[in-house]
Amino acid sequence: MTTSIPKITIPADLLPNDGRFGCGPSKVRPEAVAALASAGLDYLGTSHRQEPVKLMVSRLRNGLAELFALPDGYEIMLGNGGSTVFWDIATFGLIDRRSQHLTFGEFSSKFAQAAAATPFLDDPVVIKSEPGTHPEAIPDSAIDVYAFTHNETSTGVAMPLVRPAGTSADESLVLVDATSAAGGLRFDAAQTDVYYFAPQKCFASDGGLWLAAVSPAAIERIQRIGASGRWIPESLNLVTALDNSRKDQTYNTPALATVFLAVQQVEWFNDNGGLHWAASRCDRSAEIIYSWAEASSYATPFVTDEAKRSHVVATIDLDDSIDANTVSAVLRANGVVDTDSYRKLGRNQIRVALFPAIDPEDVAALTKCVDHVVAQLS
């Protein structure tokens, strides 16, 4: 049954300049779209194994290495399929025998499920905490991969990235799902061995591509497993991906517009001050929305521990007397889109992307729009 949406008009002076607040696909900057349109005749529709596209892939790899301040020996790899495919890739080419997974929401649990379903691996160790929190890793000599999630997109929880005490990359790799964090949260790359993500969030591009910053230890693991005789489908083979990445290409044809838009965002970051500058935009947006929620009579940050609150995805609970789905529907009818909560979390809340492409002043405008809608519904 379809519920009618209340006919509420938000005054134009309250509306944000850009009303896109989705957690993925995310807002793409108009300047990047214009650049793609300008370059389209020379770039789109050309071979991904020829110089125009290989140069674009090179710009992406080099730009990310600069953005993340990668230590010596680290490389940027890429391939088709996005982060979901990368979980399967990791079960074939990165986990030796047993992995440990920190799960605290929908997406952090999926890699654990993939590892558990892999017949040639030992059962993973899964450490779980309730949504709105994150667990801590437990050093274990039987573990050869620790699987972290930098930012849990479903719940708005971010965790610090620290290699488990007493472990070394020679024995156990730290794999980090950074899909909604990369480009928006600060981190020390030396604390990770595989920092992987897709570009449809902070990098203001489209999905279907995975990228990863990999350490020398991870490269050694990839090559060793690849030579071990383990059966690996070619499209999921990290040795193949590594060989192609070093040639500034992918094993099979990528979406050229996705690569181009990601380059536009990476170079925008680097031209303006790098990761610190990009993360500072997210910090400002987070300060605006959490301060608003804390001062509100009807809104509350879902994540109670300030240290665990994400600065790229905010989850805000609304009082039970106010239907969050109705609020989001009214916002959408007024051109302010994708503030819906994550469906499987099942809470009466709004979820708002705070990615670098989103102007903090638009986040401030969003809070005023929500106040107006709630006042009209009361």
From TrEMBL:
The keyword Transferase applies. SUPFAM superfamilies: PLP-dependent transferases (SSF53383). It is an enzyme of class 2 (transferase). Its cofactor is pyridoxal 5'-phosphate. One of its GO terms (cellular component) is peroxisome. GO terms for molecular function: alanine-glyoxylate transaminase activity; L-serine-pyruvate transaminase activity; O-phospho-L-serine:2-oxoglutarate aminotransferase activity. Its EC number is 2.6.1.52. InterPro entries: Aminotrans_V_dom (IPR000192), Pser_aminoTfrase (IPR022278), Pser_aminoTfrase_mycobac (IPR006272), PyrdxlP-dep_Trfase (IPR015424), PyrdxlP-dep_Trfase_major (IPR015421), PyrdxlP-dep_Trfase_small (IPR015422). Residues 143-336 form the Aminotransferase class V domain. The keyword Amino-acid biosynthesis applies. Gene3D superfamilies: Aspartate Aminotransferase, domain 1, Type I PLP-dependent aspartate aminotransferase-like (Major domain). One of its GO terms (biological process) is glycine biosynthetic process, by transamination of glyoxylate. Keywords: Amino-acid biosynthesis, Aminotransferase, Cytoplasm, Pyridoxal phosphate, Pyridoxine biosynthesis, Serine biosynthesis, Transferase. Pathway: Amino-acid biosynthesis; L-serine biosynthesis; L-serine from 3-phospho-D-glycerate: step 2/3. Belongs to the class-V pyridoxal-phosphate-dependent aminotransferase family. SerC subfamily. PANTHER family: ALANINE--GLYOXYLATE AMINOTRANSFERASE, AMINOTRANSFERASE CLASS V. This is phosphoserine transaminase. It comes from freshwater metagenome.
